Amino acid sequence: MITRLDVYFLTFIFSLCTPTQSANLNIAFVGDIPIEELLKKKQIFKLEYDKYEIDNKIDLTSIKDTEVFIFFGIWCHDSQREVPRMLRILHELNIPPHQISLIGLTSKKDEPKNRAKKLKVINTPTFIVFKNNIEIGRIIERPSMSLEKDLSNILKS
Predict the structure, then answer these.
(1) CATH number, domain with residue 43
(2) Domains identified in the chain, total number
(3) Which of 58, 77, 110, 116 has CB 3.0 to 4.6 Å from 121, enough for a Cys bridge?
(4) How does DSSP classify residue 123?
């Protein structure tokens, strides 16, 4: 016979399992993440990537000489919106994957190589553009105007 105490105990045990399983699923998205893996395994990112229409009137050809670090959290709604858009822009500009660092963060903004701490990343997403290993600009959380316009301004600086 199951008592009320048994029900409380089982409820408590199952409640402990659910967050742990969820955390374990998300741990794979902390640190360096291949773009293809993110788009394949996280549907919300793929949907935004597919539907985003790039503003082709803005010249971003000088981005080819840069590196872009993308710090984000799969749990972050701003990341779910902006990261796929940035990836789409970079793809359309034929930026090779070795010039893009896609770095997943925990909700505490941690990742195994501590780049987020070194670069003082506080919010997600944070897009940092480097030229010759020197930071030339960043977009934090959401663009001021649009990703394309903000990138253009960074590249002109």
Answers:
(1) 3.40.30.10
(2) 1
(3) 116
(4) S
